[in-house]
From TrEMBL:
Keywords: 2Fe-2S, Electron transport, Iron, Iron-sulfur, Metal-binding, Transport. InterPro entries: BFD-associated_ferredoxin, BFD-like_2Fe2S-bd_dom, BFD-like_2Fe2S-bd_dom_sf. The keyword Transport applies. Residues 2-50 form the BFD-like [2Fe-2S]-binding domain. It comes from the Bacteria. This is Bacterioferritin-associated ferredoxin. It holds the Pfam family Fer2_BFD. GO terms for molecular function: 2 iron, 2 sulfur cluster binding; metal ion binding. Belongs to the Bfd family.
Length: 66
């Protein structure tokens, strides 16, 4: 799914950037060598970023509990 039409940034691009250590929207754009243009995608990127970080934290908690 395309999240940012200005930069043709897909949800997969965002997931890859997060997997590679991005933790802020600017880092996600930087990973694709682009930047926000109109800004309509920022809320979607923030939502995907939060979901991914929460998932990572939950996985870490499970590993620590085991």
């Amino acid at each position: 799914m395309i999240v940012c039409s200005c930069n043709a940034l897909s949800h997969r691009d965002i997931e890859i950037a997060i997997h590679n250590g991005a933790s802020r929207p600017a880092e996600i754009y930087s990973a694709r060598k682009c930047k926000a243009k109109c800004g309509n995608c920022v809320p979607g990127i923030v939502c995907l970023l939060r979901s991914a970080l929460q998932k990572t934290q939950a996985e870490q908690a499970q590993l620590n509990a085991a």
